[in-house]
Amino acid sequence: MRFNSLLGTTTAVALAVLALAGSFVDASPADARQNSAPSQARTLTPSGNSLQDFRALVNNAIQLVPKFGFIQLEGTEVTQESINQDQVERIVMRNRDGIIAREIELQYAKPSDKDHPIYAIITDYSDNEAATIGSTFFKFKYNQNTGIIQSYSLETPNGHAFVLATPSGNGLQSLMFHKMSGATGVSLGSAEAWDGKSTPVFTDPQA
């Protein structure tokens, strides 16, 4: 069964991630300083086509600006459930025929910590679920002192990248988008600081 296969893959990846003890939080003094909010808020605008580049990289499946959320495919209905003793939250988007078009699995370190998913696997399927179009792997790293997101790492069929989130005041963060193939990061603009507690699904990318 395709879902059991995916769950097996998820479990295997989870074991590998959890083997890196504390990898999804960091209590180093440098990170604590980095995540202390400045007194003045700074609102940044995206650099050039950075938002379009990011959306293309993740196949328009997730957004970070102006706030974190997943993107619902047009013409689909969304269902959500918790599985694997509540360590996995599954978000499924089905078309009008009930066929799964996109599947998102959020993995938590333990059932008692449902505030901080450690990674997400986003999988898109062909019209009849017979084939996987592509999968995106998103890893989340939080600041241990604040519980706020510190960075995102992603692996997609279109390439690898990471996004650094730096506090800019008034509950906002400035996001810098770095492609692994490029030496210089570009600004995605300002976003609401995400604490991992909510995983909304938007019908359209937010402005």
Mean pLDDT comes to 80
Q: Tell me the helix content.
A: 10-25%
Largest sheet: 10 strands, mixed
Strand-and-helix sequence, N→C?
Answer: HEHHEEEEEEEEEEEE
Percentage of residues in strands: 35-45%
Count of helical regions: 3
Radius of gyration: 17 Å
Instruction: Characterize the overall form.
Output: globular
Low-confidence stretches: 1-41
Termini separation comes to: 38 Å
Counted up, domains total 1
- Say how many strands there are: 13
Class derived from helix and strand content? alpha+beta
Descriptive account of the structure:
This protein has helices at residues 2-19, 29-34, 50-57; strands at residues 25-26, 62-63, 69-71, 77-83, 88-94, 100-108, 117-125, 132-143, 149-156, 159-169, 172-179, 186-192, 201-202. The chain is an alpha+beta fold and 207 residues long. The protein is globular, with a radius of gyration of 17 Å.
